[in-house]
Amino acid sequence: MDLTGLKWLQQHQQMVSPEFLQILGSDGREELRKVESYLGNNIYDTIDGCISRTSSFQMEPVKNNEENRVIALGNKRKPEGKRETIEKKKKIKAEDETESSMKENSNMSNTETSSEFLKQDYIHVRARRGEATDRHSLAERARREKISKKMKCLRDIVPGCNKVTGKAGMLDEIINYVQSLQQQVEFLSMKLSFVNPELEFHINELSSMMVDSRSFPLHQQGSLDYSVINSNQTTSLNALKIETSSNWDVHSQCLYNNLRTDSVSSFFSLK
Amino acid sequence: MERQIINKKKRVFSVEPNKIPPSEVFTRKYTSLLVPALKKLNMNKNSSQVNQLTVKHEVDMALALSAQEFAWSRFLLQKLSSSNNPTTTTSSSSSGIRIQERSGKEGGHEDGEIEEKLRELQKLLPGGEEMNVEEMLGEIGNYIKCLELQTIALKSIVQDTT
Where, per UniProt, does this protein localize (chain A) (predicted)? Predict the structure, then answer.
């Protein structure tokens, strides 16, 4: 089929519709895949025909946005023994799809060609052998893959998830953890409300330091590190690796706004 | 004096935000918001009674304001500002609809269980009910991190005074 197939595609300049794929049959699909990989590999070649074709491929999606398309992606991933893969692109409208599809695709094919095609708003889904290839199930699968990716990320965040397997158990863990964190915050704020009158003393210290140093250049204010708040206990804050930096500048603005003491208000009326 | 301020403001923007780890940024923002807010509370209410609810309010406000790059903080801010004005919010009606849905699905079905748990999780996250599942799962990660940082900050503030 080789060259004739190529020429056919070149002539028609069309994207391949799913009906066409079905007509091709499994053998035809294999052929088509070869053709696609050939096209994909040649994107950076100096063969004129290929270049013109690839450039026109990029233009196409602007016109025909409704169909399923098969676009050559330069698939260099070795197909596993029993798997026959067809790549389809689907247009699914969602806001942050392009990023995830970029990630997926960079995992699937290690070429740079993928970056060209990913400027479009498509999801790259791989249909495996024996699985349905219609639009809805592909969308379902894409969605499920995304969700499982996010669950994996959450595994790293939530402690104690190593033993638990499966979605339900993970979700349980996450719920428990979030609830316990929220309860902790409530408890601490309650404690804070009892302790608050004494807090004033330290806050006064803090604010007076800020007020005095306004006449100095603000980078000196960076020395206002947490030793003012905690003379004894610096361990938990040091764990966050807080260093003096002029990032304080940004926050001192809103800090001063909150203070609203007489000495400061005139200074910051110029916001 | 004005020129000094303008110069300082200029200097503010010269810092490259990429180099500072986000946990640090958050913690600084949080403490710098919360501490003076608490002080203001003390000043305004001259009596020793600082209401627990207002402290919680300030705590939540500080959390929402220091994490403004995330979606849930917007919802939290909305909630906080609406709790000041006691008008009916839309969230109550949406949660009513959700409860109806849930009662229809309880059949020990495995998928239903997972969906139930997802819904519970949505309730925990501020604004979770308005998001779809994928978005919510992403936001939950951020929310957890910010909650952790918040607890650390609160602990250090509390421990300092005792």
Answer: Nucleus
